[in-house]
Design a protein that fits this description.
Strand content: 15-25%
Shape: globular
CATH superfamily of the largest domain: Metal-dependent hydrolases
Number of helices: 13
Distance between the termini: 19 Å
Helix content: 25-40%
Bound molecules: N-(iminomethyl)-L-glutamic acid, fe (iii) ion
CATH architecture of the largest domain: Alpha-Beta Barrel
Mean pLDDT: 97
Radius of gyration: 20 Å
Length: 388
């Protein structure tokens, strides 16, 4: 079964060899999907026949968003913490424990329903690849169920037993680190591709981070790190030293951190919704881009530091607050996210890509930043099927 999408006003392929600029834009274009893949892209006038036909009527078509950082297996919410923050309370990692208590008390069915609700919410907004972390269970059994349930629903699963030290180990954090590296990792590794550590003052220090990453890598997981979110620290350097796919947050960076990222394959994943929702300064995206680092954008959707599931909102923030161009922001939210997940099949619309397609109710990708807060999704295909 093949379908042709024709009369595309602007097709963002993300391959500069296919079209204009870094987004590889084709105008008056068409695209053919066969099964779950893109099999043809080119000018509408040259398009081949297909079984089914969809008229884009001049609108823009982009790769579906790749949200490479989210925490979606949880129960409850923390609206009051947000309200207190907006009245001047600082964000502190300790709020995570409120969600841990609610998550431990929830049933599997409740966790699955909340996760599915959020992934559906993302799909409606054009996100077709989702990464989801554990980290609100913090016992071997609760972390195992988080990664197991996540693996039923999303593409990319990350074991984040090292999110914070739970209250019962507050006086003996090393015993908790040993649990994460031992029984918890063994229970979670079969369901996860990635290992993550919240390397930050108040969470895990550099030695603990090293121990946990090394154990994860030994168990066959690939590293990614929460780094330099709340202050300067060793997170980015550790991420680069371990060849992590991504260093996430990157809010407080030194010259050395930027040089390290620029000279590595580690993607700097920026999460501007967090700065928006915690009233922190935004990361210096221009510094990273001009130094030559690869930048991705993601939501960090979670009930504490940032409860948005909207990649379009993150693009608008990146453009307005971090001075990224609309093209840079759209690339970072699609191809950048794919790099941060080491995925070659998503984040672009060239022949062979998974047919993850976002059609906007707008003539160009610029409208994502130009019309903040406005729903502009006309249709979404995921792996060749209409997802919304
Ligand atoms: O990425 N930084 C650590 N973890 C999350 C916040 C989780 C929470 O506050 O519940 C983050 O911002
Ligand atoms: Fe996070």
């Amino acid at each position: 079964m093949s379908v042709i999408i024709s009369n595309i006003g602007e097709l963002v392929t993300n391959d500069p060899a296919d079209g204009e600029g870094e987004l590889g834009i084709l105008r008056d274009a068409a695209m053919v999907i066969q099964g779950d893949r893109v099999v043809w892209v080119g000018p509408s006038a040259d398009a081949p026949e297909a079984d089914d036909f969809y008229d884009a009527r001049g609108r823009a078509v982009l790769p579906g968003f790749v949200d490479s950082h989210a925490h979606l297996v949880f129960a409850g919410e923390r609206a009051e913490e947000y309200a207190a923050r907006m009245s001047g309370q600082p964000y502190a990692a300790g709020g995570i424990l409120t969600t841990v208590t609610a998550t431990r008390a929830a049933s599997d069915a409740d966790l699955r329903a909340n996760l599915t609700r959020l992934v559906d919410e993302m799909a409606r907004q054009g996100t077709t690849t989702v990464e989801c972390k554990s980290g609100y269970g913090l016992t071997a059994a609760d972390e195992e169920r988080a990664v197991r349930i996540a693996s039923e629903v999303v593409d990319e699963v990350t074991f984040l037993g090292a999110h914070v030290v739970p209250g019962e180990y507050a006086h003996d954090p090393q015993t908790y680190v040993n649990l994460v590296k031992g029984e918890m990792l063994a229970a979670c590794a079969p369901y996860a591709r990635w290992i993550d550590v919240f390397c930050e003052r108040g969470a895990f220090d550099p030695d603990q981070t090293r121990e946990i990453i090394e154990a994860g890598v030994k168990a066959g997981l690939l590293p990614r790190l929460h780094a330099n979110q709340l202050g300067h620290g060793p997170g980015v350097q550790l991420a680069v030293a371990y060849g992590a796919a991504s260093a996430d947050h990157c809010t407080f960076l030194s010259d050395r951190d930027v040089d390290a990222l620029a000279g590595s394959e580690t993607v700097a994943t920026l999460l501007p919704g967090v700065e928006f929702s915690t009233r922190q300064p935004y990361p210096d995206a221009r510094w990273l881009i001009e130094a030559g680092a690869t930048v991705a954008l993601a939501t960090d959707c979670n009930p504490g530091s940032c409860y948005t599931s909207s990649m379009a909102f993150c693009i608008a923030l990146a453009v307005r607050e971090m001075k990224m161009t609309p093209a840079e922001a759209v690339w970072a939210a699609t191809a950048g996210g794919a790099r941060a997940l080491r995925r070659g099949d998503v984040g672009h619309l060239t022949v062979g890509a998974r047919a993850d397609v976002l059609m906007l109710d707008a003539p160009s990708h610029v409208h994502l930043a130009y019309r903040p807060g406005v729903p502009q999704v006309a249709a979404v295909w995921r792996a060749g099927r209409i997802a919304w």
